[in-house]
Amino acid sequence: MSFLSATLARVKPSPTIAVTTKAAELRAAGRDIIALGAGEPDFDTPAHIRAAGIRAIEEGKTRYTAVDGIPELKAAICAKFARDNGLDYAPSQVSVSSGGKQVLYNALMATLNPEDEVIIPAPYWVSYPDMVLLAGGTPVTVEAALETGFKITADQLEAAITPKTKWFLFNSPSNPTGAGYSWDELKALTDVLMRHPHVWVMTDDMYEHLAYDDFTFCTPAQVEPGLYDRTLTVNGVSKAYCMTGWRIGYAAGPEALIAAMRKVQSQSTSNPCSISQWAAVEALNGPHDFIAANNEAFVRRRNLVVEMLNEAEGIECPMPQGAFYVYPSIAGCIGKTSANGARIVDDEAFATALLEETGVAVVFGAAFGLSPNFRVSYATSDEALREACGRIQAFCAGLR
After folding, report:
1. I need a labelling partner for 399 at 20 to 30 A (CA). Which of 78, 176, 196, 268 fits?
2. Domains identified in the chain and CATH numbers
3. How far apart are CA 62 and CA 39, in angstroms?
């Protein structure tokens, strides 16, 4: 009998973390590596937010807090939802955790029973299916094609719902594609959900403020108020506020669900970092002008990457509406052989050969549930992106 839990056999380590770790190891060994795998902004946390964290330390705010968040942060979160999304929540409807991932995990652990199904559009963030599996549920993926802008249709959602469906787990703008659902597109999905009152909605809005061009962000409970009582609206400060390492995520939803999530957290990690919570109060309540400035850089980088990748032989790269990722198709590269003799049988082989032969680290599409593609994070310098895309162009030109 194995000493380890059988549950672990159902899941795999995070491929994005694996790629980032491999790139760091190669760089430490002296290789010239450009890592495009990490999903975090390269900008520093804004000064006023850093100052709030330092002030919390100096004022001795370093002790245990309430399990799922200090009152000041819950009040700031309620104000944020009212201000940005037109959603009214009381502090008792808010949960704060050590990152958005823990919020999602707590909700799944608190609600899933064996055979419960969770519908997840693909491409998806790599952790969604495995968190469902860890919680004892069954992930049901619905593939969104390049032709539909990596967005599922109402008919696809309708077809995926069964009596066992408990959650629809939704992310817009998307990691890994950057695709964003318009109000009308989201309304079509919420109309389906209104016909199935046993299905709840878990919406991951982590990239809410990273929206570009004429795309306007919206969230399910905002589009369809009838879903308010069965929606968990998840967000955090990691991406827009450049606070990935501070580890603060939050959610708002029905009180009974929030209480159940609190129980899970009370017996696992207890409260999020006290210092990070005070920094998050300043992030939500303080000035936000830096977001627009950062987004200008992201748009410039996005345009650079999309243009250069579309010039590479065998690659088709659509223009995303938000986040800081592109998800190009490499259908034109499959079946070819690299200059060093690597056979490109799938997107994992492509990513492996690309790293070994050019030093560019990307995440292969199968990790996100849709192939043949790969994900590029353009949350790095223009110079690094230009050099990396040039290497990708040369790699593709050498395929035979």
Report:
1. 176
2. 6-44+290-397 (3.90.1150.10), 63-285 (3.40.640.10)
3. 29
